[in-house]
Amino acid sequence: MNDYLENWVSKIRTGDPKQVVELYDDTGLLLGTFSDIERKGHDLILKYFENLLKSKVDVEIVTQHKHESGSLITNSGLYNFIVDGKIVNARFSFVFIKTENDWKILSHHSSVLPETWRLLITTNFWKILVKKDPDYKKPQNPKSFGAFLKKRAPIYLGLIGLFLLFAYPALTEKDLNSILDDSFEGNEKIAVDMVRFYSGPNNTGITILEVIEERINEKHEGQKIFDDEETWAEFIVEKVNKKLYDVVFVFNAENNQSMRYEWHVNIENGEISPIDSTSKSIQQTVDYFD
Question: Which fold has domain 1-132?
Answer without folding.
Answer: Nuclear Transport Factor 2; Chain: A, (3.10.450)
